[in-house]
Amino acid sequence: MREHCFKGPTVRKRKRKPSVPLQEKNESGETVYRCAECSKQFPAEGLLRIHTRVYHGGTIECSLCPAEASSERDLEKHMVAEHGDSAPLKCSVCNSPHFSPEILKSHELWCSTLGKLKKNLKCQLCDFNTIQYDELCQH
């Protein structure tokens, strides 16, 4: 089995001015929020915050390759898709690979709750059981 030295994600922040949401009315009189950096308009302040973080915020670098992500969840998706075989953490319920302890904890909570809600599926030929129908079919 290959072993990798896992370093946590590296955050590279871009300098930016603290931005106060610019609330204004558009041509039809609706309230919109304008980005102070690129002037793009959004119907809700939350959408402006997401836009600012993704397009004008810092990035998180993958510690195993040159890829970058705008959020820890996006980095986790990249890590599992591209480097899943070297994941240092595994879900105790479904054994899926994870790199972030916080995301693993959230996933395990979801996974264990789902297991309680779904019927446990058992193989008719052996002791194997799962909560996922497609996993039972593959088995």
Automatic annotation (TrEMBL):
Keywords: Metal-binding, Repeat, Zinc, Zinc-finger
InterPro entries: Znf_C2H2_sf, Znf_C2H2_type
UniProt cross-references to PROSITE patterns, sorted A to Z: ZINC_FINGER_C2H2_1, ZINC_FINGER_C2H2_2
Residue ranges of every copy of the C2H2-type domain listed in the record: 33-61
A Pfam family hit: zf-C2H2
Protein name: Zinc finger protein
GO molecular function: zinc ion binding
